Fold:
Amino acid sequence: MNATPLLSMRHVSRTFATRRSVLGRPRDVVQAVTDVSIDVQSGSTLGIVGESGSGKSTLGRLALRVIEADQGEISLLGQDLRALSRRQLRALRPQLGLIFQDPYSALDPRWTVGRSIGEPLRVSADLTTAEQRAAVAEMLQRVGLDADVADRLPRAFSGGQRQRIVIARALVTRPRLVFCDEPVSALDVSTRAQVLGLLRGLQREFGLTYLFVSHDLGVVEAMSDRIAVMYLGSIVEVGAAETVARSYRHPYTASLVSASPAPDPLAQRARRRVVLNGDPPSAVDPPGGCAFHPRCALARPICAEQKPPLQLGPDGHGVACHVTAADPSLLGSALLAEMTAPGAVESDSPRALPVVERTAP
Amino acid sequence: MRTRSRAESGSATPDTDLALSIRGLEIGVLDPAAPGGLVPVVTGVDLALAPREILGLVGESGSGKSLTSLAVTRLLDPRTVRVQSGSIRLFGRELLSLSEPSMRAVRGQDIGMIFQDPMTSLDPAFTVGYQLSSVLRRHTDLRDRAVRERALELLGLVGLGDPRRRIEQYPHQLSGGARQRVMIAMAVACQPRVLIADEPTTALDATTQAQILELLKSLADTLDMSTLITTHDLGVVADVCDRVAVMYAGQIVEQARVEQLFYHPKHPYTERLLMSLPRVGVPPDLQGIPGQPPRAGTFPPGCRFAPRCSYVDAPGCVVTVPPLRPLGDERAARCVRVDDVHLSGVST
Structure:
């Protein structure tokens, strides 16, 4: 924890303006990321997990300055990222890589695989055509594809193969920091594990630092050294991957853990499951206090009034929760048990339905 | 785990006792370049769904699972897909030979359907109440106020809070989970005997998925309904299904009760799939399955999984298609080495 982090964000916020009504009602402001502070050490993976609308992808884009922050400080590779001129930013780009969720839309269908992979080099590096071809061929081999696929078009490839091509393109400039935005969500189960394994191997080989965003806690845990859990634009829990997945102390993390489907029918059916009340709230009009309190089985009056700060312990485990801060025994399965105690959750089970006569077929 | 009567795979349960019985189903995709103009995508599928049972049909994209379940509803697009042969019976009644008007009645009343993306089935221009009422007016004798009352009742049944407000809302005003609940309400409006759910939670977040799965489980009991769920997610299967059939390259490769399949798989593909799933709190195996699933039209001659299988040995693996062999105790596997390789399941 003593080394200078490769990426350091302090009090970073970003809002988006949206127009909701065709009748010209005033624009609504979505608070996509609110006052986020986080460090990522060189060569490590920070996993960011959360549901749609939690701001996890926005956070990754802010970290690479794909989009601009409204407030806060971002230090990347020793530079003040927000102060960089366009020219300086362009010079930094080869050090940054991006891997997207959908390998179908990420590749231009009219470009050969080789042209797509070589494009970042053409833009950033002063290489001869032959040198570029050699670099592309080497990248293809590193991601487990034959060098001769360079002359083919993306449509010849399956989702998993396309994602390998996208990875080759992201890494061809040998970046230091790579933002993986749901890199396996669009892939089938059997290819998903292959691609995750490939990403891990490449990380070791090239000493890469990953920002790894996913809605799937199992995938994030498999890939990450540290995990940040986001809910409605804020980090609610952060810590070592194993700590967050097993000794979690935020009720939202507990519900994510209990909702993650496990391929284990007996455990799955025996386990306590938190069924959250209602729908995820809107980021346009977030609840006051702790944003999670309307859905939280443990909420107290204070939770509706004050937003809990993210309190970082000496072990680097940070939690933003009034309730568990007051009771250190509430962690991991004990927290889950408390949340699923009888009376803690409203039942979601349906009422009996009176029978209705069918019309004759 | 709930107990309910189950169909014996391959045994002599009469079709009239089964909610759904699929035999020898063959589906082809139209392709002028292919021999006979059709590329086979589903080949020789047999499935039995017992009353009140929840059966999972699991497979990756292109495995044929969705085509199989759509064939039951006869909603396959005739311009691109054709059922070539086979039989699909609903409590003994053959569906494939029904006229289109009779089939429409079956779809409304006897078979309910929900799909991955609720927006494809909900009309954005009409309120939830209007759409739910249309279903009720078309398929029941209810009229006027009784329709509205029934619609409110259904919204309550699927766990939507504040039905009186919901009934006035348009689909875009609802969250993904609420839309899926509305679609389920429409699907079960006439108390169908069979519910076909095609990837019902794939587009939803984890906590919402958990809610919808709980709902499907309790509806199967409350409404005395059988459910066929297609999914690519073995976690979903572990959660809600009684039995499961695994599809690979257009064939069923393994069928079993859920706990047998997860703890004692009998097909190498099932074993590798189970190993490939990253799981909270368990160190991952990130090798996956080498290679890619074969595309329709390029199925290998023997076992279709053989090119990716680490247990390939017997000549039978690559020469002829192995049969789906009954193994007793309601299970079957399509592997010639089923007796001499020991596969590992999920550890408890």
Chain B touches chain A through 70 residues (CB under 8 Å). Chain B is about 30% helix and 20% strand.
